[in-house]
Amino acid sequence: TILLNWGDDRCLKLLGNCWKALPENGKVIVVEMIVPEIVENSSASSSVFQLDLLMLTVLGGKLRTEKELEVLARAAGFTGIKSICSALDFWVIEFYKGSTTAGE
């Protein structure tokens, strides 16, 4: 959960550096809290939005939706994005430099 600490510009730079360092069919595994596209009335959803506000005010970072993470990854050069699994609001997402299912 590093990307939530930074704004889009710094995340783009970080992901771009990862992309450059990877071999042709390499991947980056990201574990991040994901902001739901549709707001739910639950304590878990409330916690995510409270953390989002905290990250914005303290660090200048933010939590992102899955779609926002995909946009950042593609802007950094990644061509494949695959959501692997989730637990509560934490998601494991793979960003692929080469094919969408590198190594599969």
Automatic annotation (TrEMBL):
Gene Ontology BP, a term: methylation
SUPFAM superfamilies cross-referenced by the UniProt entry: S-adenosyl-L-methionine-dependent methyltransferases
Domain O-methyltransferase C-terminal: 2-78
UniProt keyword annotation of Transferase present: yes
Keywords in alphabetical order: Methyltransferase, S-adenosyl-L-methionine, Transferase
Keyword flag Methyltransferase: yes
Origin: domain of life: Eukaryota
GO molecular function, one term: O-methyltransferase activity
PANTHER family: O-METHYLTRANSFERASE
Name the UniProt record assigns to this protein: O-methyltransferase C-terminal domain-containing protein
Organism, as annotated: Nymphaea colorata
